[in-house]
């Protein structure tokens, strides 16, 4: 690992770069607090709603408001401009409401003055709920009701990823933990026997057991045999669940296991590149809501899991080998220190950089995101071309590439003929695409954006699917398409 300790320590400080211009952002957010997966239907709780709203409010204060600390160039401060924002989430009772709650914080009600429309006959119509703003969330059909499932890879449909995750169950590491923790899990029977039978209590079901008990410790006024849930026991439950889920989401020698992170990487590059190449007509803010599996897969692929765990009051602690807390966010900032003459005229690609930030848990004005280095190198800001090259090393954003990586040959994969990758992925792609000059990269990405906007190309696998956005009458909103990565969360 090449990380310089001093550099990492300084990254914990709030970022205040006065000469910098933020051109656009991409946010992946986990949902807020929810009920247990083991007692479906799983629902977003009032606490979870508050968490995502608080996070949305923070990102407003950072990027959107007229007094924002790092305002996005040309962003509409109060009245949402549908051309400038793209949000997406699977349709279920946790992720979709989380998206709506976050957006309420990002663009809150505008009051009696801004929230009024004057008709031709001079009648004034006041927006309900004090100027409440209705922001469309694009629905991702794959992953519907995924929050009722505890199986990490179940919603992905990627055959090789499912097989790879299952292979963890036959490794010596898994068998050792299964055997060494047997008595520990059996000792929890009095606490969970109303939900789980004794045969269920083993490391094999580490996450489901942890999830049930974790939810109970947050919400239940009384827990059977609560004296068994000592701080040491709760810590061990969490640690075992972290190990179990990371092992299912990522394996250094078998990249397909992290297909969720690979599709996310392609999605991020595509979205930021569209912001760059179609600045005045593309979203400046891209937000998607997904599952912890997507976080963990990306953390492994981007070499973030090699960073040391950090305990810090400003970040609530960060450990990239652990399951991210509710309402966690990772953000990709597209930034430049060059002069920007107008919101529609961006600097040359060589003058643009990307910064990665992560916050574990609810983000607020007292608990900020922190910048971390990607790909095992020390820099907190990467030149655009280096960032795209690093992401391309594991990105999978083309249907034929996905079908090949996943080993799928039925459904849409049955009719996919081998062809050039639109967003090459994997280290075995023969150096396609991004290893060329930056002009070629950007040109290819522009072509991708056009294709995505015209053809209803369906991305399957790892929960990646393309959805068209219906034209909003008289809203000025552009037609477009986004993809979504979803796993059980």
Automatic annotation (TrEMBL):
<comment type="similarity">
    <text>Belongs to the histidine acid phosphatase family.</text>
</comment>
<dbReference type="InterPro" id="IPR050645">
    <property type="entry name" value="Histidine_acid_phosphatase"/>
</dbReference>
<dbReference type="GO" id="GO:0016791">
    <property type="term" value="F:phosphatase activity"/>
</dbReference>
<dbReference type="InterPro" id="IPR029033">
    <property type="entry name" value="His_PPase_superfam"/>
</dbReference>
<keyword id="KW-0812">Transmembrane</keyword>
<feature type="signal peptide">
    <location>
        <begin position="1"/>
        <end position="19"/>
    </location>
</feature>
<protein>
    <recommendedName>
        <fullName>Acid phosphatase</fullName>
    </recommendedName>
</protein>
<keyword id="KW-1133">Transmembrane helix</keyword>
<dbReference type="InterPro" id="IPR000560">
    <property type="entry name" value="His_Pase_clade-2"/>
</dbReference>
<keyword id="KW-0732">Signal</keyword>
<dbReference type="Pfam" id="PF00328">
    <property type="entry name" value="His_Phos_2"/>
</dbReference>
<feature type="transmembrane region" description="Helical">
    <location>
        <begin position="437"/>
        <end position="462"/>
    </location>
</feature>
<keyword id="KW-0472">Membrane</keyword>
